[in-house]
Amino acid sequence: MQITVERTGGFTGIPLTKTVDSANLSHEEATLLHQMTTAANFFELPSTIPSTPQPDRFQYQITIELDGKKHSVTVGETAVSANLKALLNWLMARPL
Fold first, then answer.
1. Distance CA 14, CA 68 (A)
2. CA-atom Rg of the chain in angstroms
3. Are 5 and 61 in contact (CB under 8 A)?
4. Of the candidate ranges 20-29, 31-40, 52-61, 72-81, the one whose mean pLDDT is the lowest
5. Distance from CA of residue 57 to its chain's centroid?
6. d(CA 96, CA 89)
7. Each residue of 37-73: pLDDT tens digit?
8. C-alpha neighbours within 13 Å on the C-beta side of residue 25
9. 56: left (phi over 0), alpha (psi -120 to 50) or beta
């Protein structure tokens, strides 16, 4: 599984892109990543989750490639579900 998160917006407006490949993770981390992706129902989410724009809030584009499937979701910070937020927080905490 490969996940790319592109974060834009925020106070400074400086974009940030992170890519995590489960092949480079420990077995435990890869299992956790898969569980969080499943809990977020990522592949069932629409490509755009509507949100109310607000100043200084982040916008995320998350792309996951898994077993030949590729899905991207764009969501504003105010519309992120709890399970998707857990996945985003884990990904954003990873070193570049």
1. 31
2. 13
3. yes
4. 52-61
5. 15
6. 14
7. 999 999 999 999 998 878 899 999 999 999 999 999 9
8. 19
9. left
The per-residue pLDDT for 54 is 85
How many angstroms separate the Cα of 37 from the Cα of each of 3, 9, 28, 66, 94? 10, 24, 14, 11, 16
Report the pLDDT value the prediction gives residue 53, as an integer from 0 to 100: 78
pTM of this prediction exceeds 0.85? yes
The single-letter code of the amino acid at 19 is T
d(CA 48, CA 75): 6
The Cα–Cα gap between 76 and 96 comes to 22
- Rounded to an integer, what is the distance from CA 65 to the centroid of its chain? 12
| Dist CA 60 CA 76 (whole Å) | 6
How many CB atoms are located within 10 Å of the residue 75 CB? 23
Q: How many alpha carbons lie under 13 Å from residue 36 in its C-beta half-sphere?
A: 21
Give the residue-averaged pLDDT of 26-30.
Answer: 96
Question: Tokens representing 40?
Answer: 């977020």
